[in-house]
Protein: D-3-phosphoglycerate dehydrogenase
Organism: Pontibacillus litoralis JSM 072002
Amino acid sequence: MTYQILVSDPVSAEGLQPLLNQDNIQVDYMNEFTNVTVQDVINRYDALIVRSQTTVTKELLEAGTNLKVIGRAGVGVDNIDLEAATEQGIIVVNAPDGNTISTAEHTFAMMMALARHIPQAYQTLMNGKWDRKSFKGVELHRKTLGIIGMGRIGSEVARRAKACRMTIIAYDPFLTEERADKLGITKGSLEDIYATSDFITVHTPLTKETKHMIDDNAFTKMKQGVRILNCARGGIIEEGALLRAIESGIVAGAALDVFEKEPAMDHPLLDRPEVIATPHLGASTEEAQTLVAQDVSEEIIAILNGESFKNAVNMPTISSEVRRALQPYYLLGEKLGEMAIQLVTEAPMKVTVTYGGELSDFDTASLTRRIMKGLLSYHLGDKVNIVNTFHMAKTYNLTYSVEHATSSLGFKNLITVTIETQQGKRSISGTMLAGYGPRIIKIDDYSIDMAPEDHLLYIQHNDIPGMIGLVGTTLGKHQVNIATMQVGRKQEGGEAIMMLSIDSLFNQDAFRDLEQINHIHSVKEIRL
Ligand SMILES: NC(=O)c1ccc[n+]([C@@H]2O[C@H](COP(=O)([O-])OP(=O)(O)OC[C@H]3O[C@@H](n4cnc5c(N)ncnc54)[C@H](O)[C@@H]3O)[C@@H](O)[C@H]2O)c1
Ligand SMILES: O=C(O)CC[C@@H](O)C(=O)O
């Protein structure tokens, strides 16, 4: 199978090399098309690679009926409708590390340019004026820098500011005292930053919480003559409030790489001599562009080839240690989900997944996704995948819960899937047996030992002599070959079950004949 990939924004050709080297991948570039939009052609593609120019809307995603993955060559995914992508089961991956250094360096370049009026002085000189009076600047040395958002970029900015002997105070909900100590900075609140900083720089994502976090009220708490920088996302600083703070003299200078609306043309802030600006250039270096394109290319290859990947934005990330430990259980989990749903005839209301043995020590969320995917996709088909499975469960009013049990029935690991319907509960348990692979070891209260094979027959009957023979003869009459058979019972002469794996698809005549055998209560074919 050949996968089609569309690159809709300018992305480093060198960075795309991993994709171009794949035999089963064909890459197209939007700038090679004329008179068409991404929306017009997206249905041909399995993956889309964007930077920040392409806005990936719900409508675009809906038009992309074959889309499996969106790769963002960069960090911010605010140009992608993540909720819609999740609903449609499209994985969104980004490249969070590749442009960190470039953006931190750009922020630093902006801070120095701001402190020394370099762009304004350059412009004056280019206009033929030798003006040495208007551009008296300030040193960074011994000034206080307030950093809001101490993630990758904020931390790199802090390291550089330390080298310039600045005092650094930072706020981030995830910043611990220990980490602040290690970086040689002070952990403070927003109020502390506003009250003490000579320079303030923001490095948060744009979220509901951070949108306009620096507003009129925040500016009134800042030191007179503060200088402010935004190389993160337009909208973290409210632009109208910034303009007012410049006009009132609270803000002596602002350096902006990003704007609420980009491209920012005829912007009132750009008319102010106190403002220096770049057109969203933080990540625009050869190194960063190669790295981010390489990172998303590798992620896309892994996803299309069904291998594990690490930077999904609309799925929780798991450590490589957990991924390695759980990988062998993914197939078992999916099969258990598929089998569990086939045990019930009423609409499922609640699913409980219980992990026992060594599995109870892990964060099993990624395994639960596989189980729920197996369970839901049996009836809902391909539209369910590991990205949208929890969303789909919610859509169908199916609740799920996860329990970690101490008992594992003597097995090293155990997964039990219990489905509740109006008729009661049905459950199925499985384990990974060293040397044997996945095994089904219990259905409801009956112990069995079967591999989750393609064609299974589950028969409920009374435990009376001759049942095994009758079932064997009936299937033989219909040319259905039994590969393995397991029987289970609660007590002698009571209710019993038979689980058979058969070599071929079961036929309706065989089904009817089996059901007519005295003392057989139900016959169920399980397809995996
Ligand atoms: N200008 C550019 O070209 C460019 C390039 C790369 C990244 N960016 C942007 O820079 C920003 C930071 O990127 P990063 O890679 O450092 O991200 P990151 O995820 O590593 O760090 C973001 C930090 O912000 C913190 N945060 C979230 N909400 C906060 C709040 N209300 N107050 C304080 N801190 C908060 C988070 O805890 C996290 O530590 C993002 O907006 C990203 O899109 C811009
Ligand atoms: O693609 C770009 O140049 C912008 C990148 C930057 O804003 C990001 O969030 O990674």
